[in-house]
Design goal:
This protein has 157 residues and is α+β, with helices and mostly antiparallel strands. It is built from three helices and ten strands; from the N terminus they run αββαββββββαββ. Strand 1 and strand 2 form a beta hairpin.
């Protein structure tokens, strides 16, 4: 039994050491993913729409702060936010568009009381996008420059 107790602390140190190395982010998502509070990342690079799911701890970070970090990362890659949906509970979504008409969408949801579950999607070649929920979402000023707006729909110019 004392042999087993000696291994437990060494396993704990090994596990903590691996966590400190950071979460591996799949494919070409690295520049789009804020690393603060990131606990898990997995995704799919196949198909026309590339998808990734991320989990973040909520401790010390509001949903608005997390969304701002994604907006900063997307802006650094040449994407402009064209729509935004924000709920009082910290959930939100946003759609960004590049000059090359690549769409980048972020959807932040709550996962229990301690985590954010974030879905990212990227696609090129779409003719336009629609608001996720016209009651809680709005087009940004940037949408006027790149969209022919028709209510909850944006057809790319």
């Amino acid at each position: 039994m004392s042999h087993l107790r000696a291994r437990v602390p060494s396993l704990l140190v090994l596990t903590l050491g691996l966590a400190a190395c950071g979460v591996s982010v799949p494919g070409e998502w690295g520049d789009f993913v804020p690393r603060d509070n990131l606990t898990l990342a997995f995704g799919e690079e196949n198909g026309e729409i590339k998808k990734i799911v991320l989990n973040y701890t909520r401790e010390g970070m509001s949903g608005d702060q997390l969304r701002a970090k994604f907006t900063e990362k997307a802006g650094a890659k040449g994407f402009k936010m064209i729509s935004e949906c924000v709920a009082e509970n910290g959930t939100s979504s946003a759609i960004y568009l590049s000059d090359a008409k690549e769409v980048f969408q972020v959807a932040i949801s709550l996962l229990g009381d301690q985590f954010y579950d974030v879905g990212l999607d990227r696609a090129a070649g779409l003719p336009g996008v629609a608001l996720a929920n016209p009651e809680t979402c709005k087009w940004t000023d940037a949408a006027n420059a790149v969209c022919e707006l028709d209510g909850d729909r944006c057809k790319f110019k």
